[in-house]
Amino acid sequence: MLDDELKELAPWQQEIRSRFPIITRHPELTYLDSAATSQKPQAVLDAVQTYLTTANANAGRGTYPWANRTTALVERTRRRVKEFLGDRDPDSGRSAVHFVGGTTEGLRTVARDWLTTHLTDGDEILVPYADHQANLVPWLEARRQLAERGVHVEVRGLPYQAESGDYDHRALPGTIGPRTRFVAATHIHHVYGGDMNVHRLRAAVGPNVPICLDAAQSVGHLPVSVTELDVDFVVFSGHKALALPGTGAVWARNAPARGPEFRPGGWQGTPNTVGVASLEAALDWLDAAGTDRIARWTTALAARLTDGLRHLAPYEILGCRASLAADSAVQRRHGIVSFRHHGIPADDLGFILFSHGFMVRADSLCQAGADETAASVRVSAHVYNTVEEIDRLLSVLVSLC
Ligand code: PMP
User: Fold this and answer.
1) Best probe residue, ligand 1, of 108, 135, 237, 365 (max atoms within 8 Å of C-beta)
2) Residues 211, 185 contacting (CB under 8 angstroms)
3) Checking phi first, is residue 248 left (phi over 0); if not, alpha (psi -120 to 50) or beta?
4) CATH number, domain at 305?
5) Smallest Cα–Cα separation from 190: which of 240, 137, 139?
6) What is the CATH number of the domain that holds 232?
7) Dist. CA 108 → ligand 1 center (Å)
8) pLDDT at res. 371
9) Which of 37, 108, 234, 366 for a ligand 1 pocket mutation test, highest count of atoms within 8 Å of Cβ?
10) 37 shares a domain with 49
11) Same domain for 59 and 192?
């Protein structure tokens, strides 16, 4: 079924791939590290060039045309982010977008400027210990800061289920209590590639507990709707969504409020205006390409790789175990497949793959959980990757059996 998907989308994908200069200029190389950062289409490069040659100025400060244009760009892109995230009410003032340098900074900002201001002694928060450390460290820091002020907050782990590779919604009721005030979760896992099914969290925690979503691996890869997910914060990195490094945003639902309004504190200084220009172009590009099609493509590529690998004895594929059973039709890794070779250390495997032109990630992948830190190889695809690239990668991996 997923192979049919690849056939159907192939002509579209071929045209889309041609719009990434770094990809077409390096036919000898295969970039499969898009979970770390994405490549940029020509439209984003053009937007950067146009901004810097027609309007470069500071935002929110000057009154001359370039400054006004820059201020308008920043405000327009704030609205664009809301729209892109399926916020049905972008002009109502019920939500806010705050630009940040990326997901790490965004989650830190939520922790520092929002979480620490309204928890009281004895409150509990739920955090994902087995996810990216960017989605754990800020909450632990917040606990420490609160403790210094005499406010003691209990941090509990979101239960994780190895079989299905997502949060264990059956174990959730045992972790949630009347003092649960906040849940931090991840949309798509950065190692396992699985959808963490956060919609089940809302059902489990009820209507009043704020949920903060790390969408670093979903924005730009698949449709993300704040309306459907019913979360209170969405944090993402622009650079993983085809925009420049140093870009990202926090979307915050301010009303109906499940906590105080999100008002990041302090003097903000000069925003990354050229980054914002790249983000606007990237979101336009993604909408035109269709995030649903991008998701179908990358999911099908990941399924092809998983299918090819799961029968090979030396390899252990991480994440959703149910998907690896011989008769499983479950192949829902969102473009990310991580694995270990029992006889070859991950970093060696990374070097071997690069000797064949494949650029993949090979280390402990910034995973927070204590027993999750053994190194692995992560292959992560985006819309510019082809079936042929996955098949060539597979033939190299087969040759190492
Ligand atoms: N969360 C997840 C799930 C990620 O994959 C990453 C990046 N690997 C981050 C957070 C951190 O993103 P950034 O480095 O852009 O701040």
Assistant:
1) 237
2) yes
3) left
4) 3.90.1150.10
5) 240
6) 3.40.640.10
7) 12
8) 52
9) 366
10) no
11) yes
* Contact present, 47 and 277 (Cβ < 8 Å): yes
pTM: 0.96
371 class by beta-carbon count within 10 Å (0-12 exposed, 13-18 middle, 19+ buried): exposed
Pair (305, 361) in one structural domain = yes
For position 255, what pLDDT does the model report? 83
**What is the per-residue pLDDT for 183?**
97
- Where helices occur in 58-152 by DSSP H, the ranges are 65-84, 103-110, 116-118, 137-148
Do 94 and 107 have their domain in common?
Answer: yes
Give whole-number Cα distances, 220 to 28, 217, 232, 322, 331, in Å. Answer: 26, 8, 19, 27, 20
Give the gyration radius of the chain's Cα atoms: 21
Distance from Cα 195 to the centre of ligand 1, integer Å = 16
User: What's the pLDDT score for residue 332?
Assistant: 81
pLDDT score recorded for residue 42: 98
CB 60 within 8 A of CB 389: no
Residues of the chain predicted below pLDDT 50:
370
Residue-level pLDDT at 64: 95
Question: Other CB atoms closer than 10 Å to residue 203's CB: what's the count?
Answer: 11
Q: Is residue 385 packed enough to be buried (19+ CB in 10 Å), middle (13-18) or exposed (0-12)?
A: buried
Kindly state whether residues 273 and 341 are assigned to the same domain: no
134 lines ligand 1 (CB under 6 A): yes
Structural domain range at position 317:
2-41+290-399
CA of 132 to the centre of ligand 1 (A): 7
* CA 399 / ligand 1 centre spacing (Å): 32
Whether 17 and 106 share a structural domain = no
Residues 51, 104, single domain; the answer is yes
**Domain edge (last residue) among 266, 288, 310:** 288
pLDDT, residue 370, reads 46
Q: What is the pLDDT of residue 323?
A: 86
Where does a domain end: 270, 288, 306? 288
The CA-based diameter of the chain, rounded to the nearest angstrom, is 66
Ligand 1 centroid to residue 97 C-alpha, Å: 18
Domains in the chain: how many in total?
A: 2
pLDDT of 330: 65
Based on the domain organization, do 141 and 75 belong to the same domain?
Answer: yes
What residue type is 317 in one-letter code? Answer: I
Task: Please tell me the distance from the alpha carbon of residue 235 to that of residue 215, in angstroms, as a whole number.
Answer: 6
CA of 190 to the centre of ligand 1 (A): 8
- Ligand 1 within 6 A of CB of 217: yes
